[in-house]
Amino acid sequence: MWKKKLSGSRTKASWPHYAFVGGVSLVCYLNGLHGEFVHDDIPAVVLNKDVLAVNPLMDVFDNDFWGTPMADLHSHKSYRPLTTLTFRANYLMVGLNPFWFHLTNVLLHTLATLLFTRVCLHVACLRPAFATLAGLMFAVHPIHTEAVTGVVGRADVLACVFFLLSLLAYHGSEKCYLWSSILTGGLSILAKETGITVFLVNVIFDFYRGFPHIRRSSLDVRWSTETRQFVKRTAIVLTSCGILIAIRLALLQGSLPRFSQGDNPAAFHPSLLVRIMTFSYLAAFNWWLLICPANLSHDWQMGSVPLVTHVADARNLVTCLFLAAAVALLVKSAADAEKQKHVTVVLGLVLLVLPFLPATNLVVTVGFVIAERVLYIPSIGFILLTVNGFQTLWYSSIKHRQTLASFLLLLIVAQTWQCVARNKDWRSRESLLRAGLRTLPHNAKMHYNFANFLRDSEHNEMAMAHYYTALRLWPTYASAHNNLGTLLKTQEEAEKHFLLAIKYNKDHLNAHYNLGQLYRKMNRTVESERMLMKSISISSNFTLAYVELVRLKGPNDRNIAQLLKKLVGLSSDPDYAIMYAQWLQKRGNQALALRHYLGALSAYRSNSAAAMTGAGGCLRRIGSRSRLLQLITRFQAIQRLKRGEPLNHPDVYLQRWYLQHELKKHADDYSLHTPTHKYNPTSSHSPPPSKRIKNIKNNIKRNKTMFGKNAHSPHLMKITKNCDTAGKHDFQRIFVTATPTAAIPLC
Predict the structure, then answer these.
(1) Which regions of the chain carry the CATH code 1.25.40.10?
(2) Distance from first CA to last CA of the chain, Å, rounded?
(3) Which percentage of the chain shows pLDDT scores above 70?
(4) Is a pLDDT exceeding 60 seen at residue 738?
(5) Is residue 539 predicted with pLDDT exceeding 80?
(6) Top-level CATH class of 434-600?
(7) Which residues, in sequence order, are bridge partners of residue 69?
(8) Which residues on neighbouring strands pair with residue 63, listed in sequence order?
(9) pLDDT (tens digit, 9 = 90+) per residue, 417-454?
């Protein structure tokens, strides 16, 4: 086989090389470990029910990366179950602690760095010192901060790990471990879709390395053993790749992802020439980011990179330079295919171009303009080409080695410093947005997101200023109109912006809902109901619209029962079950109300005062005192466990129950407003009111040890306090006021 031809050029690196590279990759990301969940981390991790183990485990394989079913028309269609499973494992082990999520990312990046160093040695055939240099450049390159420090970037890092493992299994030794390469390639696809390109990389590089044998076989019109083995490998790899692509297309469930014009403006331009020029320039711009990552941003949408609309645009020169460099490398590689002198150049070019191909909009339309994290795998090819150039200069210009070494040291230090500085930007939502505004002040979405942050921080005036800026930069920004409308004080201005949001996006769910809310406050009932019904028609599962309709129609409307049933059926939120139960309780349906109260209690997994009180009231009204006592006992036990206190003996709760009934008996027997119980100073059987009050207070205090900390509860103390005004209020009223719904909150 032709792999033996290059085996002599492979050199081994000692463990200090790997230890040094791995240590640097860990150290330069230490300051990013204490960052928060930011940007896409929120929907992909914090709000993802697949990650939070709310959905069954098998749903991970039915839903997209964001937790939406793949069959849903609103699905992003990004299928990355392996990455989601790692998020789920993080959550099950440590909860939503961002430190451990970040640490996992950094460890995966370190593993990818070590694997890349091995690729440089055993596949690209770099010398050990320059393979170490390539590993260092990969470890500290600032373009990787979004993929490593941003939790959601794990998809790219994990895909890269399996990508490199597949490459090493295929080309990393004299023997080709074909099925191991296919397996790890499949795992790379399950981490992120770009992993599919590893199959093409393996086949093309295999073809290049075997080109002399293939050419000789074609000239001799006779198949050699090496050529036959190559054809067999290629057939197996391409067949496996085709099967995986077919499965991936089937997972689309018959629909492609939907993107807006703001996500990718060039894709929606009617002119084919404008689309081609813009997409070509974006490829060159990504290449420039790899060369000079001085200005980085987490979001490049909405005007960040203006469209190339004219042939005379100066940016077309940049595109031409990029294409010329790529063609020159390709021609040089092809001319040298027979002698195999530029293996590193060929591998670098293949790794730079093919993994980036899915993000170019040439194969499929993507939902972004530029995304730095998609450059994680292509950066491997760029670094190989760069280091190969340095290696060539080192051995061809011996006199200038000191200058070259100084430049390389300065380059590594500068990239490390920028990587550490960029990690600080990813620490919090505010720091990330402020950094984005510094880089792209003309990005409408950046102003919109920063305005959302200011609104959440209750800086409404500043938030409105940034919403207005976003609308100035992008006048048809429907979401900015909607969010601005929620902050405006005048109802007329708010209505204007809600209507503009609907004008620019007729299916804007929140704009219809907010306008329906506004019309309800303006007593425009018919219009309010129409807007809320439109919200429901856009999304039949939009529970907030049902809640607003319930408020609009009132408890006596004939359709209110159907709305509440629908609301409870749509959502597992126990608050909606309590709302329905309260309505049923007022209508006298105690049994059904009790069922919903108990369902809400089980859903809370702890306790809810409203559900406890409601359930207690239902049990009291139907006369089930034993179940009521059991409910109160469990409630008290939950409260004591939450406070870290030992559980009381059941007799304590029975004694308290007895004391409550004793107090009620006293209230009935010694009511001050009942004529038959009026105080008679001459009677020896009727103590004065002050004496009776004192007796009851002493009775409560004597049972203090029985209550424990419950003796100081607000409701119980209210009984004692209200006794001081017993001359004005009868004891029955004191007891009912102090212990609502069978004294359930006494804890």
Answers:
(1) 434-600
(2) 80
(3) 83
(4) no
(5) yes
(6) mainly alpha
(7) 63
(8) 69
(9) 999 999 999 999 999 999 999 999 999 999 999 999 99
